[in-house]
């Protein structure tokens, strides 16, 4: 199976040798760093509005095909 994530940080040990925090995984495209954020986008509405302008042909909500009535 193809993997699209890579481990960038090991988990942290807590009490009794158990992990208190699990390992950190990131998408292969942002293994070293995240893309810079746009300082003009400060709210969820700003992000949504820009996405609508950038991708007007895309549907807002996802959909799945029914298979065997499910």
In short:
This protein is of the alpha+beta class and 70 residues long. It is built from one helix and four strands.
Q: DSSP helix count?
A: 1
Overall average pLDDT: 86
Low-confidence stretches: none
Terminal residue distance:
25 Å
Task: Using the CA coordinates, give the radius of gyration.
Answer: 19 Å
**Could you give the count of β-strands?**
4
Described by its quaternary structure, the protein is single chain
For the biggest sheet, the summary is: 2 strands, antiparallel
Q: Categorize the overall geometry.
A: extended
Percent helix among the residues? Answer: 10-25%
Order of helices and strands: EEEEH
Binned strand content:
15-25%
Task: Provide the spatial order of strands within the biggest beta sheet.
Answer: 1-4
Structural class: alpha+beta
């Amino acid at each position: 199976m193809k993997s699209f994530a890579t481990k960038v940080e090991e988990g942290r040990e807590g009490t009794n040798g158990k992990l208190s925090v699990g390992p950190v995984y990131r998408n292969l495209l942002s293994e070293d760093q995240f893309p810079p954020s746009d300082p003009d986008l400060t709210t969820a509405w700003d992000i949504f509005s820009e996405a609508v302008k950038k991708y007007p042909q895309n549907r807002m909500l996802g959909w799945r095909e029914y298979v065997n009535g499910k």
